[in-house]
Amino acid sequence: MRIAQIAPLYEAVPPLRYGGTERVVSFLTEELVDMGHQVTLFASGDSVTKAELAAMRPQAIRLDPTVRDALAPQFVTLHEVMRRADEFDVLHFHLDYLSFPLFTGLGLPWVTTLHGRLDLPELGPVFDCYSQAPVVSISDSQRLPLPQANWAGTVHHGLPRDLLTPRDVEPGYLAFLGRISPEKRPDRAIRIAAAAGMPLRIAAKVDKADADYFAREIEPLLSQAHVEFVGEISDREKPDFLSGAKALLVPIDWPEPFGLVMIEAMACGTPVIAYRHGSVPEVIEDGLTGFIVEDEAEAVAALGRLAELSRPRIRARFEERFTARRMASDYVALYETLIQKRRPKLRAV
Q: Which member of 17, 103, 104, 343 has the lowest number of beta carbons within 10 Å of its beta carbon?
């Protein structure tokens, strides 16, 4: 199958450090190539892939201080994809709704995976206007705000099977991983660890958009004796970081579309203590791969039950449910359905 993967240009594919969407696009692209498909990746020129790279600009926008209009390069990408569209059996966009005006109604097999939160009031009118645009959710819960969307399927994210593996270390702390932001609630993680009498290590990125929140709400808490702020870490560092944790805390306060950090922890055999929001009940199996909680008191109580969980079993559930091969296979099945729908029906003689 000839497949076009169209990535955002804000980060390279894969990103050097944090970058959820671009990491998933990379995992999917590489797995599709390994499965024998002909894949072209439309991305920034500093991306690294086994697929054919269609470089839309020399480097990721985030790394280029000269860029003042981040949307302009993305529109050039859409033009290039349209120009080359007949080279592919299917087009797979990862650009939110940007492709909708150009590709709706053209009769091409295409689909967009929606990677972000969909509970924003501005989005409803967009999906009212483009109710025929085929879209994929990354969890069933992500769909709830937009029942009018043309949902082609739900595909949970996956990681390469051997990207993150358990390390033979003695767990000795709690972990918080990902991004510092109000909806991720690192302040809750700090309080939970304090109430449980356990050290907390925070490995997280601070985006420019969250710099004020970090300085105002989180940085003053980092001086507490039980807290260590590690900063942003790479995939190479995650196995040791997660394997060394007794549990990953995910005390979120928003409708998490998926939550890649949860399956990263599972890949290392690390239990997850997560609040019941968004995708959490779809990803975490309560009492098997972690515990789903409603508040800080329940989170502290759950930490007292970690001995009930088997770290090898958590790793096994990752292999059964959340590998990149499973994700890619799900998408191939979806591509085949889209292609079949677009083929002209033969008239009976």
A: 343
Domain 173-321 sits in which CATH superfamily?
Answer: Glycogen Phosphorylase B; (3.40.50.2000)
- The residue extents of the domains of the chain are 2-158+323-342, 173-321
Please give the mean pLDDT across all residues of the chain: 95
- Cα torsion 252, 255, 261, 264 to 10°: value is 130
The pLDDT of residue 345 is above 60: no
Q: Specify which residues 113 forms β-bridges with.
A: 136
Decide if domain 2-158+323-342 falls under CATH 3.40.50.2000: yes
User: Which residue type, as a one-letter code, is found at position 108?
Assistant: L
Q: Read off the pLDDT of residues 224-267 as tens digits, 9 standing for 90 and up.
A: 999 999 999 988 999 999 999 999 999 999 999 999 999 999 99
333 vs 68: CA distance, rounded Å: 39
pLDDT at residue 274 greater than cutoff 70? yes
303 closest CA partner among 270, 269, 260, 265? 270
Sign of CA dihedral 200, 204, 206, 209: negative
Give the other-Cβ count within 10 Å of 220's Cβ.
9
**Contact criterion met (CB below 8 Å) for 243 and 270:** yes
d(CA 90, CA 81): 11
Tell me how far apart the alpha carbons of residues 183 and 255 are, in angstroms, rounded to a whole number.
Answer: 9
Q: What is the pLDDT of residues 21-50, one digit of tens each?
A: 999 999 999 999 999 999 999 999 999 999
Mean pLDDT of 268-297: 98
3-state secondary structure 331-347: HHHHHHHHHHHHCCCCC
Q: What is the pLDDT of residue 107?
A: 84
Torsion of Cα atoms, 137 then 140 then 144 then 145, to 10° = -30
Query: Token digits for 279?
Result: 């995708």
- The reply to whether the predicted model has a pTM over 0.90 is yes
